[in-house]
Amino acid sequence: MELCPSIKNILLLDSEGNRVAVKYYSDDWQTNSAKEAFERAVFTKTQKTNARTEAEITMFDNYIVVYKFVQDLHFFVTGGENENEIILATVLQGFFDAVGLLLRGNEDKKEALENLDLILLCLDEIVDGGVILETDANVIAGKVDSHSMDAGAPLSEQTITQALATAREHLTRSLLQ
Amino acid sequence: MAQPLVKKDDDRDDEADYSPFLGIEKGAVLQEARVFNDPQLDPRRCSQVITKLLYLLNQGETFTKVEATEVFFAVTKLFQSKDIGLRRMVYVMIKELSPSADEVIIVTSSLMKDMTSKTDMYRANAIRVLCRITDGTLLTQIERYLKQAIVDKNPVVASAALVSGIHLLQTNPEIVKRWSNEVQEAVQSRAALVQFHALALLHQIRQNDRLAVNKLVSSLTKGSVRSPLAQCLLIRYTSQVIRESANTQAGDRPFYDFLEGCLRHKAEMVIFEAARAITELNGVTTRELTPAITVLQLFLSSSKPVLRFAAVRTLNKVAMTHPMAVTNCNIDMESLISDQNRSIATLAITTLLKTGNESSVDRLMKQITNFMSDIADEFKIVVVEAIRSLCLKFPLKHRSLMNFLSNILREEGGFDYKKAIVDSIVILIRDIPEAKETGLLHLCEFIEDCEFTYLSTQILHFLGIEGPKTSDPSKYIRYIYNRVHLENATVRAAAVSTLAKFGAMVDTLKPRIFVLLRRCLFDNDDEVRDRATLYLNTLGGDGAVVQTGEDVKEFLFGSLDIPLVNLENSLKNYEPSEESFDIYSVPREVKTQPLAEKKAPGKKPTGLGAPPAGPPSTVDAYEKLLSSIPEFANFGKLFKSSAPVELTEAETEYAVNVVKHIFDGHVVFQYNCTNTIPEQLLENVTVIVDASEAEEFAEVASKPLRSLPYDSPGQTFVAFEKPEGIPAVGKFSNMLRFIVKEVDPSTGEAEDDGVEDEYQLEELEVVAADYILKVGVSNFRNAWESMGADCERIDEYGLGPRESLAEAVNAVIDLLGMQPCEGTEVVPNNSRSHTCLLSGVYIGNVKVLVRLQFGLDGPKDVAMKLAVRSEDEAVSDAIHEIVASG
């Protein structure tokens, strides 16, 4: 198992270090207070840095943390100390860009909370139990933002808008490929 | 009063961001979850409620068992809706709730329906959910679908099945292993991530089969792997194969070309993974390193902090083993000192300190001084340690490096940082004689203004040892005596001891020290007064310039020749009674653990702390164990316990080793037995010992082991009487006897009837070395001289042809079972002669010292001169006897 790149956690905090959405994939933090302590430590260590143009990186407590900020949102991805830093940065970039796409460029805390369902689905599509599922932001966002009817549902049940949404999804899919 | 309160509220309203979850409360949300039961579902509203539930969980809220069950059942109703968005939320919710086994059954059919749905999104997610919550029994039912999913033409579905396989392999390996044909097919997939997941799973399935991994790597390194992540995996597997085949291959390293080729890959993560893999190869050559260093050097000037960090961190590691290979990057590295990211800057500096040459030291120090002020303590400690190693490497530069250390010592900093600096100065003082006097003065200045009691006392202690040996000890007195005025009681007491040490060691200073010590008699702290009184009375001479007696020095400042762990244990065991505590009853033996010592990474400088404590002693554990057995309770004090001697070959049915416990008039053999057969239970286990070749021994007691289940070690004991105080030797043959019962492996229960059986063990010997304790002395020459030649016995022996001088030395050390002193057990290569010093304590508490002089006589023959000094002639003779008969 240890040979496979693995993600310890993905954090999305606000500009005061509070949780917007977090997902832990490792048993290193058993309790909620341990998790909060880690988040606080990461936040205080990174808050003064400028991680707005390029992803930044730091190392502490034998973890590697890569991070990037936009407005009042702070994105973090944590890996073990022997992890390939660039793989972690790729996951971070995928998460960051996917959230940007899903919030249609209005990346701030308010928008993120209003679309929390999308953010949670986004986390669910990036990493599964520590294993990287997908790193391409367009694919991640595409998988999350597919509000359409079940293809198996009879057409008569679909409204015009839903039909349009389905059509649009098919179109974007074919464009992405 | 009211107004400010209102105002405060206003303020908060203005400042607080609007949040859709403002004032959210668990009870209310759980109520809202009732909409899941509506006959006419509103997907949008249901999604919102699930989001609220997930928000609560995400904020650290927990649901009680009842609440979780209720929510779970309500959520399962939502499978009726055909809304994809809602279904996605349902999947996430089920995973978060991690339902129990009987709840899982409720959703199984819905999930299995989704798993075979035509909608890709349903199939992929249903697989992930089902595999997350399922147990082994359900897995066999859905196995068929999972195998199909692995080769599904939709990459999302295939990935979902493969990743689930990776997780399931931990819990149900035998099932997942059956999928390897499908997984192998998926490795050839055109979709990048499917390939990555398939490769990860395939390797995990085969990881215990070295040949299969070898084959996998050699076939894939030839072909083209599309996904950068899969390529990284392949690089990791390749380096594993290289590591494992390193011993068998000579000449060109296999697969090196593949790694080198990856340095030209288009993805940065692959380039870096390959470069890192090359730098970590065992015994990597400069030629192999060069291309990897070149790409890392390019990364150093990247605009991306992550790349710079990755590169400098790797180069930093390389610099430890191959400093020369990294010097090419020094210019790039120097520009990183001003990097915005302080982690990168610190790594750059410490790398430079490792690779720098003597001429660049001064320039480097100038750059670092500016840098130190704006980094955190944790980084500063790293830098301090790097400077210490640099100074040890270039002792000529000690002046500027020591100056640097003393400057930063004066600046603000926490305890750990200050301790790191002080430790470094102490190590430099010890190892570089020229740096001693300046270093001591820096420390003196530091304690003038030191807020840490621990550091002050440690420095005072160190001054007491080193100060008197300097050219002008008197100049330190002022600093020390100032402490007596200005500090807390702990530091004052330490200062008094230090003063006394100066008085004892430097006779000319004695009268003046006495004046100072007398003033300390009026201190308001007991400990300080007690110490001053003790020193004034024992140093003697009433303050005149006279020499202090050796015995007084030994009494006051001599080292305690008893391991502290042993003393601590004896004191804990001592029960207050008429009889006072006898310090000589404390066992002196330090259990040597050669294996553990070998593992310890090199010699680590320990700085101020006491010399490294001896390895933890198992003597006490044995002592406790034996004294708890009534049969052996009256044998008296345990003299020595041997290291375990194996009586069986490795990997036999029963593993037995024996520990010999030597008492004054008895010997106890402790047989440690392990049953390695799961289908057997052994009962009434004893060892039948035949002592016919050990005439002086007579069996007195035996303690059988009642039951020995599979894989849980147990002990049985046999005790012998022997002539008191005499080092009797002999050979014992052993037979394990027991009643064996069959155990049903499925239930773990043993049958009622057993069969008596025996098992032959190897022979065991009690040898003379068992009667000698390994006890070292710190100064062999002193000990040798003070022992005197009264009971000296000298003789010469021919040891016959030997493989090497070192082999002969080790053989004699093993034979005598004594402690080599002053590192004399190491024989330099190609030397023709060698002197080895040994020390020990013979049974009856007799100190023994041995001087062995070896010489090569002809090409292979080794001759040895053995000189023994002890407190008893008979013992000296006995040592010769051991060698003569060995």
TrEMBL record, chain A:
Annotated CDD domains: Zeta-COP
Record key words, sorted: Cytoplasm, Cytoplasmic vesicle, ER-Golgi transport, Golgi apparatus, Membrane, Protein transport, Transport
InterPro entries: AP_mu_sigma_su, Coatomer_zeta, Longin-like_dom_sf
Superkingdom of the source species: Eukaryota
Protein's cellular compartments: Cytoplasm; Golgi apparatus membrane; Cytoplasmic vesicle, COPI-coated vesicle membrane
Pfam family of the protein (one): Clat_adaptor_s
Gene3D superfamilies: 3.30.450.60
Annotated ranges, domain AP complex mu/sigma subunit: 7-146
Main location: cytoplasm
Membrane topology value: Peripheral membrane protein
Coiled coil region boundaries: none
Assigned protein family: Belongs to the adaptor complexes small subunit family.
Function: The coatomer is a cytosolic protein complex that binds to dilysine motifs and reversibly associates with Golgi non-clathrin-coated vesicles, which further mediate biosynthetic protein transport from the ER, via the Golgi up to the trans Golgi network. Coatomer complex is required for budding from Golgi membranes, and is essential for the retrograde Golgi-to-ER transport of dilysine-tagged proteins. The zeta subunit may be involved in regulating the coat assembly and, hence, the rate of biosynthetic protein transport due to its association-dissociation properties with the coatomer complex.
Summary of subunit composition and partner proteins: Oligomeric complex that consists of at least the alpha, beta, beta', gamma, delta, epsilon and zeta subunits.
Protein name: Coatomer subunit zeta
Species of the source: Hibiscus sabdariffa
TrEMBL record, chain B:
Classification lineage: Eukaryota, Viridiplantae, Streptophyta, Embryophyta, Tracheophyta
Pfam family, one: COP-gamma_platf
Positions of the Coatomer gamma subunit appendage Ig-like subdomain domain: 621-766
Assembly: Oligomeric complex.
Subcellular location per the Swiss-Prot or TrEMBL entry: Cytoplasm; Golgi apparatus membrane; Cytoplasmic vesicle, COPI-coated vesicle membrane
Location of the Coatomer subunit gamma C-terminal domain: 769-883
UniProtKB keywords: Cytoplasm, Cytoplasmic vesicle, ER-Golgi transport, Golgi apparatus, Membrane, Protein transport, Repeat, Transport
InterPro entries tied to this protein: ARM-like, ARM-type_fold, Clathrin/coatomer_adapt-like_N, Clathrin_app_Ig-like_sf, Coatomer/calthrin_app_sub_C, Coatomer_g_Cpla, Coatomer_gsu, Coatomer_gsu_app_Ig-like_dom
Name assigned to this protein: Coatomer subunit gamma
Known role: The coatomer is a cytosolic protein complex that binds to dilysine motifs and reversibly associates with Golgi non-clathrin-coated vesicles, which further mediate biosynthetic protein transport from the ER, via the Golgi up to the trans Golgi network. Coatomer complex is required for budding from Golgi membranes, and is essential for the retrograde Golgi-to-ER transport of dilysine-tagged proteins.
Major location (coarse): cytoplasm
Membrane topology reported for the UniProt record: Peripheral membrane protein
Coiled coil: none
PANTHER family, sorted: COATOMER SUBUNIT GAMMA (PTHR10261), COATOMER SUBUNIT GAMMA-2 (PTHR10261:SF0)
UniProt superkingdom: Eukaryota
Chain intervals for the UniProt region annotation (Disordered): 594-615
